[in-house]
Amino acid sequence: MNFDFFKYRNKLKPERGRLLISEPFLPDPNFERTVVLLCEHNEDGSFGFILNKPSFVKVSEVVEDLKDFEHEAFVGGPVQQDTLHFLHRSTSIDEGNKIYNEITWGGNFEKVILLAETKQLKPSEIRFFLGYSGWSAGQLEEELKQDSWIVCDYISEELLFETEAGQMWKKALDGMGGRFSIYANYPQDPRLN
């Protein structure tokens, strides 16, 4: 029996605050089994961060003023990996862009440093990203037509800030329920099944 993976295509459209979950066999090494939070999506293009791809460096190695943040920075995507971005859920950091509920992109970085120095900001409230994921106008729509991504509106602070990176892709698909729960259990290499 030939199984058509996306016979019943996901009908959600990409928009700010939704997740892009890579299909199980996406061959692009930048996005293999990734979950991307869309921070912007409009006629000019799309922008977001890979949530589950740890880098090999600690935040304290990237930002000297955050010497007590011994947690890893994440690879936000293949674009401009020499830039640092952050997502947080702290109501004490102002000037950020609300993405979904209390999940906010960016904000007053001096306040981040002050809160970290005074132990008022926990690592479970903030994630740092090197680089970002970006799509030019129409590019993401083309990738959706090619079934490279599943659009998901199952997003929570717990998923973003408390889920282990290695479990996030599966947990996001499981959270969607139905056939997506089945996709979550696909082996990385179906030839080994």
Summarize this structure briefly:
The chain is built from six helices and ten strands, in the order E-E-E-E-H-E-E-E-E-H-E-H-E-H-H-H. It is an alpha+beta fold and 193 residues long. The protein has a single domain, classed as VC0467-like.
The number of E-state strands comes to: 10
Order of helices and strands: EEEEHEEEEHEHEHHH
Q: Cα-atom Rg, whole angstroms?
A: 17 Å
CATH superfamily: VC0467-like
The SS-based structural class is alpha+beta
CATH class: Alpha Beta
Query: How does the major sheet shape up?
Result: 10 strands, mixed
Distance between the termini: 16 Å
Helix content: 10-25%
Which consecutive residue ranges, at least 5 long each, have pLDDT under 50? 1-9
Mean pLDDT: 89
Cα shape: globular
Whole-number total of structural domains? 1
